[in-house]
From TrEMBL:
Keyword Disulfide bond annotated: no
GO MF annotation list: identical protein binding; protein heterodimerization activity; UDP-D-apiose synthase activity; UDP-glucuronate decarboxylase activity
Residues covered by the NAD-dependent epimerase/dehydratase domain: 18-289
Enzyme class, UniProt record, top EC level: lyase
Catalyzed reactions per annotation: UDP-alpha-D-glucuronate + H(+) = UDP-alpha-D-xylose + CO2; UDP-alpha-D-glucuronate + H(+) = UDP-alpha-D-apiose + CO2
Main location: cytoplasm
Organism: Carya illinoinensis (Pecan)
Protein name: UDP-glucuronate decarboxylase
Family: Belongs to the NAD(P)-dependent epimerase/dehydratase family.
Amino acid sequence: MASARVDLDGNPIKAMTICMIGAGGFIGSHLCEKLMAETPHTVLAVDVYNDKIKHLLEPAGSHPWSDRIQFHRLNIKHDSRLEGLIKMADLTINLAAICTPADYNTRPLDTIYSNFIDALPVVKYCSENGKRLIHFSTCEVYGKTIGSFLPKDSPLRQDPEYYVLKEDASPCIFGSIEKQRWSYACAKQLIERLIYAEGAENGMEFSIVRPFNWIGPRMDFIPGIDGPSEGVPRVLACFSNNLLRHEPLKLVDGGQSQRTFVYIKDAIEAVLLMIENPARANGHIFNVGNPNNEVTVRQLAEMMIQVYSKVSGEPSLEVPTVDVSSQEFYGVGYDDSDKRIPDMTIINRQLGWNPKTSLWDLLESTLTYQHRTYAEAVKQAIAKPAAN
Ligand SMILES: NC(=O)c1ccc[n+]([C@@H]2O[C@H](COP(=O)([O-])OP(=O)(O)OC[C@H]3O[C@@H](n4cnc5c(N)ncnc54)[C@H](O)[C@@H]3O)[C@@H](O)[C@H]2O)c1
Ligand SMILES: O=c1ccn([C@@H]2O[C@H](COP(=O)(O)OP(=O)(O)O[C@H]3OC[C@@H](O)[C@H](O)[C@H]3O)[C@@H](O)[C@H]2O)c(=O)[nH]1
């Protein structure tokens, strides 16, 4: 299998060692799965947790890939083993971050440290040791669209020039400092600028990924089941939790914001192309999203309600959604991106990648997984207090 693999220019792909930081998270778990199942590469998986990749690690020695994945439980904030792991690898992929919006305005210091300060040594070790880096940034670095500042009735709001987000042309538009929502985006922007400067001044080989709402199985947690009861995950898990508990889905500020969602399995294909085509990927910033899957958050809720009813066989609630203010839901200092359509020119040109899965299809497979994984545990958790 391995010897037949070629890159986009027809050259054989050599097996490499990848230091993957944040490998135990949502994206990391899917990337590890893909690398183990379809490539000859070795992964040094770094994280503080490994629950989401346990199926790849255990039982020890039992998988065809067992000698190609090692888990290193370490916190990159304070662990001297990090440099050694980066030195052992050909490529480092940094996914580690606090990346749930509920944290940005309530734990801004942790958010800024996690997304900027903690990423600094990773960049430094890569640069000093001549190692390639793929760093995970975010679509949030674009902030708000130019169009959102135009008068509500301006026809220019319909012009893609005013809303499509382009890596090499769009500005990064954040709110004021007291809108602490932007602490995450701002920290990600600064680390992007630092990596870019390491490339320009010191010749570091890098690619920056800007994911546009990747969703799928294993994203975040279900509060009170495999995460804190009071925790607020990203929207897919919030809405899944409401559906599993037969509660109305909460629409923040009426659910008018727009998002494009891409299936995790499509997006992972793009990352694999970056890993295996360094000559095409180095020096670039890549939007990775699905511009065809745009909905308002309200439309997402409506579609998830329909899909969940189909996959669970349960009827939907008579009043399936409820509006909540952002202050009530996220607290003071929240703000939002109005619209996120990725321009796909660069990733198309460099890597020939295109997303395939429609929003309906990706929700169907994801909610089937959510139902199968959590429905019973949620039922028991709901029944418990009544029994006491
Ligand atoms: N999922 C998306 O749609 C999306 C969108 C935009 C950006 N991103 C970015 O992609 C990256 C991965 O996102 P994800 O969705 O997989 O999030 P995730 O929270 O599931 O994964 C992040 C992982 O990093 C680990 N981590 C955090 N701090 C660490 C530390 N100090 N030491 C060791 N491990 C640490 C966490 O334990 C977690 O397993 C993040 O940088 C995020 O900002 C994701
Ligand atoms: O229960 C909920 C949860 C969320 N929402 C809304 O749904 C939208 C999407 O919320 P998400 O939690 O997925 O977070 P966002 O899309 O705003 O940001 C995310 O996207 C890019 C990544 O960098 C991060 O993973 C995260 O910041 C927001 O408008 C939010 O206000 C609800 O209406 N109800």
